[in-house]
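Sanity check record (used in CI):
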Amino acid sequence: MPKKVDHEARRQEISEALCRIAGTRGLDGASLRDVAAEAGISLGRLQHYFRTRDEMLLFALRYINRLAGDRIRERIEALTEEPTPREVLRACLSGMLPLDDRSRIGLLVGAAYYARAVHDEALRAEAEDGIPRLRAFFADQLRLAADRGELPPERANEDEAMLLISAADGLATYVLLEVHTPETALRLVDLHLANLFGAERPPETGAGRVVTTGGSVR
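Expected output for HTH-type transcriptional regulator BetI:
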């Protein structure tokens, strides 16, 4: 068991090294040797944990997504004891945007992964599995909102859920490209939710508040 824990920890450390490269110079052309040097280990040692660049990239993407999921849960828990579906959706959507350095790096790794996955069926399986689950979760929140009288029933469906996901993905890309600022992206998320649920002032705590601290927005 200790060996398994150490093995996982080392893989996470390598993923952190990959993220540091992504944050400073991007991932185009970043080799296993580059990541090994950043992690302070030999290439042979790195290949003990990851045989290929794609294997390393996929693990890093899953690791980053897990951390992002933890941050989103923290945002939801920072809301009221029983957050509304709208608040839950806003927390999720804001968590999908590059609002600080950490989330920006995560999305850069994701972009590198998806660029390769377009031409690789094995890599593509991650998106094929993850997106439907996220869509189903969003649709469940929309149906709950409709049951509570907060949303027209005809808009509580998986198509509407997919539009929310697509809006967040598009805004995230534009923030990475500096077409939009993080503040603008959040404002547009609120506009989309207002069009869906009706006008309402954003929540004042947790994921609902726009706060700039040390270059981050949350």
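The longest strand covers residues 212-213. If this sentence no longer matches the regenerated tokens, the check is flagged for review.
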